[in-house]
Amino acid sequence: MKGLLAEWFRFGMVGAAATLTYLLASLAANSVGVGAYWANLVGYVSSVAISYFGHAHITFRSTQAHRVQGPRFILVSLSTYALTNLIVFFVVDVFNYSFVAASVAVACSIPVVTWLLSRFWVFRPA
Question: What is the pTM of this model?
Answer without folding.
Answer: 0.75
